[in-house]
Amino acid sequence: MEMRATRLAPLAALVAIAASPLACHGGSSSSGSDASSISPQPGPPPSAPAHATPIPMASIEAYVNPGHLPAYDGPTGSIEGTIRVDGPAAPDRKELDFGKCPDAAFVYGKLFREGSVAALDGSRPLADAIVAVTGYSGFYVPERADAVALKIDGCTFGAKTVAMTFGQRLDISSSANEIWAPTLTQAPTPALMVVNSHTDPVKLYPPHPGYFTLVDTTMAHQYAQTDVYALLQPLHAVSGIDGHYRIDGVPVGKMKVNARLAALGREASAEVEVTKGVVQHADLLLHYAQRTVVPRDGGFPDNWKK
Questions:
Q1: Which end of the chain has fewer CB atoms within 10 angstroms, the N or the C?
Q2: For the domain that residue 297 is a member of, what is the CATH number?
Q3: Nearest C-alpha neighbor of 53 from the set 196, 256, 274, 209
Q4: pTM, rounded to two decimals
Q5: What DSSP letter does each residue of 223-239 carry, written as one string?
């Protein structure tokens, strides 16, 4: 059974998957679940959600665990696979100017990034897709890390998509000599913070769960843009340039793997039976149909909730 993409709900109706435990470490179109390799078992869960921001803990808990559910402390498995895309090849972003940094065109020059190896059906590996696991209830899965790190490399952000859990901070460092001023456009900016290879990382704090756009407000890199998702739980991942993803620490039971890419305006999902210590395989296929205007992402559709 091939899992195909579906159209997203209107952007204004999309909701950050903030109240639902979702696992995002990859996705792909699935024709079944094939067990392979061994899934590591995590240690005891933290007693509380991640709290590495100025936001009060009570406000974070109100989003990530509004029902005051116990933290999951049972056996886990893993899900991995490949996200692929079919339809026309990604078009050029002709409106962007890469004159000052031609290398940036390799990252931002197309509407989306895809691998060069096509399958027999014409589909290609899809990079930068956000993947999440949903479908559990009766407990919550706490975040184990305080921060997500992103490194500016040359004249590009280190990633086109970032998935983090609400309550974490985003640490942005740089290997570049020139100044960058990373900013989340949908978040208040009380002060301009800058970073280069000689400074400490800039720390950014999403003020609520949802979708944000990371840009450089110096205007020196107007093409550089990263989609940032602040999710309600830590089971999330982003596909690599080869389309691969993997999510560890998934509670056992029947789950759903979901994938989407903002530039496509599509999502796909597959059901997976997670068993203790086993890596299950699930691939997802997203469809690209050319259109004149690409809407910005507004969060997650309601059916991505647990």
A1: N
A2: 2.60.40.10
A3: 209
A4: 0.82
A5: T-EEEEEEESSS-EEE-
